[in-house]
Amino acid sequence: MDTFHLPVMAKEIVNFLSPLNGKTIVDCTVGGGGHISKLISNIQFPISNVQCPMSNFHIIAIDQDQEALEFAKKRLAKYDNIEYIHDNFGNLANIIKESVDAFLFDLGISSYQIDQASRGFSIRYDAPLDMRMDKSKQTSAREIIHNSSEDELAQIFKEYGEERFSRRVARAIVLERDKKEINTTFELKDIIEKAIPTWKKRESVTRIFQALRIAVNSELDVLKKALESTIPLLKPEGKIIVMSYHSLEDRIVKWFFRDKAKNGILNILTKKPVLATEEETAINPRAKSAKLRCAEKNN
């Protein structure tokens, strides 16, 4: 593993979190450690190739993907004030034992996870139907495809993929699995493409794969739970920063912020979501769909 994806809107996140000195920051989705690296490099002291002594900040780096966590540990090995935790950020209430200054969520899936064919996230590679971000979990995309009813599959595709042809695809999957097992991404892709009109093929395949990934990892339920957990753990003026990549995630964050602001708990710092600049999207196409929202806890 040589590279992870470029951190999206790193400059904007650094601006929200600076100065870092004296703060405790929780990176709920550390990935390859890109955002942490940018944060630390912004501190006004030299960063050398030797291990940096303990400074007056503390970073708690969480990721449910063990491979991502190991990569971050190696990338950030010279800093001894980063605590690494292999867990799902839905467990924040149990993970965090102190009041903190900020929570950072970079949602979705990394370029590394997509490009690693064996993980089964991408429509580009023929691979086992997996899609587990935490490979220690039992339920994979294959289990959902084989063990869900037609109604359950249609609901997953409609709710998590906003797929117009959800019922048609669900029926096609059930008919096909009665004939033989569906074990790989290309086998599923072929079923989807045969079930829908030609002009919608690629878009529908992408939506179905997204829906399955969300279902496998319970992403939306976990996000709701995690956001609620941040409130009692935040210090006054502490920040919640969330970067989402599709409308389902962004809608949850938007309404969570609005509800807490209405009740005087949060102050929304981004009245509209922050978008990546044209310069950044030209370098990193993944940034094009990103929406960043930030809110601050009131005293």
TrEMBL record:
One of its GO terms (biological process) is rRNA base methylation. It is found in: Cytoplasm. GO terms for cellular component: cytoplasm. It catalyses: cytidine(1402) in 16S rRNA + S-adenosyl-L-methionine = N(4)-methylcytidine(1402) in 16S rRNA + S-adenosyl-L-homocysteine + H(+). SUPFAM superfamilies: Putative methyltransferase TM0872, insert domain (SSF81799), S-adenosyl-L-methionine-dependent methyltransferases (SSF53335). It is an enzyme of class 2 (transferase). Its EC number is 2.1.1.199. It holds the Pfam family Methyltransf_5. Its main location: cytoplasm. Keywords: Cytoplasm, Methyltransferase, rRNA processing, S-adenosyl-L-methionine, Transferase. InterPro entries: RsmH, SAM-dep_MeTrfase_MraW_recog, SAM-dependent_MTases_sf. GO terms for molecular function: rRNA (cytosine-N4-)-methyltransferase activity. S-adenosyl-L-methionine binds at G33, G34, H35, D63, F89, D106, Q113. Transmembrane segments: none annotated. Belongs to the methyltransferase superfamily. RsmH family. PANTHER family: 12S RRNA N4-METHYLCYTIDINE METHYLTRANSFERASE, S-ADENOSYL-METHYLTRANSFERASE MRAW. NCBIfam families: 16S rRNA (cytosine(1402)-N(4))-methyltransferase RsmH. Specifically methylates the N4 position of cytidine in position 1402 (C1402) of 16S rRNA. This is Ribosomal RNA small subunit methyltransferase H. The lineage of its organism: Bacteria, Bacillati, Saganbacteria.
